Amino acid sequence: MWQPLASRFPDWQLVIAGPDVIGYQARVITLAEELGLQQRVTFTGMLSGEQKASALGNADLFVLPTHSENFGIAIAESLAYTVPVITTKGTPWQDLNTYECGWWIDQQPSTLTNTLEDAMRLSSQQRKAMGQKGRDLVESQYSWNSVGQQMAEVYRWILAGGTAPNSVVFT
Fold this sequence. Notes:
Oligomer: single chain
Strand content: 5-15%
Order of helices and strands: HEHEHEHEHEHHH
Number of helices: 8
Helix content: 40-55%
Number of strands: 5
Low-confidence stretches: none
Shape: elongated
């Protein structure tokens, strides 16, 4: 999926960050070499602290394709750094589409490739504007102050009854 994009977007670099928990990195490195992409793919391993802040601060996109991710704190962190996000519907991040700060897509390789191409074709200013919307979303919905206020509303509702607050969802 990166190979056709790499040739069309020569200024872009794919950075794969995170620990190699299941030993898959060697296989991906070999595949990148076989496809002639070794100069266009960087493996960082686990990043934390200043290294993670630097990586997110310099990223143009954050991509997390997944079959199941409960909340995806990495998504929230990326949005907090004003980085637009592409993730799959294995996450509960439909707000990416609602708030126009990223893409919440079906789990199909062709959909991911097409979405990556669309995102990479945007101007830097357009991606920055999306990233700012993402930061605004995180501040309004997921900051300590926001979550604290939501929890206080839930406690008041539990104690006093009445209409459930918006943060309580019944399924």
